[in-house]
Amino acid sequence: MINSDNQIFNEIRFNWSREEILEILNSPLIDLMWNAQIIHRKFNKYKVQLASLYSVKTGGCEEDCSYCSQSIYSASQIKSHPQFEVETVLKRAQTAKKEGAERFCMGWAWREIRDGKSFNSMLEMVRGVRDLGMEACVTAGMLTDEQASRLADAGLTAYNHNLDTSPEYYKNIITTRTYQDRLDTIKRVRKAGINVCCGGIIGLGENIDDRASLLEVLSNMNPHPESVPINSLVAIEGTSLEDKKEVDSIEMIRMVATARILMPKSKIRLSAGRENLSKESQILCFQCGANSIFYGDELLTTSNPSFQSDRELLREVGVLFNKEFETCKKTLSSL
Ligand code: SAM
Ligand code: DTB
Ligand code: SF4
What we know:
The protein has ten helices and nine strands. By secondary structure, the chain is α/β, with parallel strands linked by helices. 6-(5-methyl-2-OXO-imidazolidin-4-yl)-hexanoic acid (DTB) binds next to strand 7.
């Protein structure tokens, strides 16, 4: 990555090899963080996007994703509910906006989108969120070309569909849809002119080669996904991964920093698992490239740091976190 003059490689590339990625992932932490910072400062100016997440339809999903509490194959005790009304969802989006969120992400525990009343309501929700002046993101499983183009017409900013892990490790995690299904969904989203939000999870039992392999698939997409969520597994009781060991924070920092180096302009979102990261670990993630977070006290079925505590953290770090908000040289008392 660095040539003999010690100059940082800074053109945007779509041809990263597995070997190069592994070399970056495994480089001494202090060098990895420094290189990621140089690239991050050059391309992104330290501004963190706040994205609030809301589970519009919870539980009862037909897929067997082994990390997920919403799958019918899990024994997790969650509060399942059918799709919320459009009005309820838009009220929640308004609250998120008031708290400073720029993006509102809506989740459906579906294997795929089906046409009909629920999909029409989804389109209304997207229009409503856009009318509030917020970015709208949907995550609802697979979709058809026609559904993607209707979502684009409704003004959808981004569609989230994660690859989760490497092509090689994938079969250990999900058996009810293939890696290719996921890639096809992402292609349809791109073709419809919607931004792609695509990332993965660490802590599923994968090894470092799998992490490099996931990053290889993501960083060889041209263009790169506009946002790349990096989740660390939230080991939820009742799922088959409930006993998985907590991911070490250094591994999260390595993943974020490497993603930043490979995809200089993408929003790298520090996603699930933030409650297990210390303040200091999160700060290191921001320093070496994370520039978006899920913001609000709930993810889908698990908890997340509160609005207030995240604002305090970001002010303390001194990054910009909303275009209407001042930089964080302000005192904490102005919160
Ligand atoms: N059903 C849709 C789908 O799978 O595309 C949308 C919702 S799904 C919950 C979105 C993503 O959240 C998953 O692909 C996975 O990457 C992440 N996720 C789900 N449960 C998680 C967990 N327990 N820990 C970390 N990430 C998780
Ligand atoms: C993503 O990559 N992570 C979010 C969002 N996209 C939809 C979901 C995290 C879910 C964490 C576990 C839960 O709350 O159920
Ligand atoms: Fe269903 Fe999505 Fe959960 Fe998989 S991750 S079981 S597709 S809700």
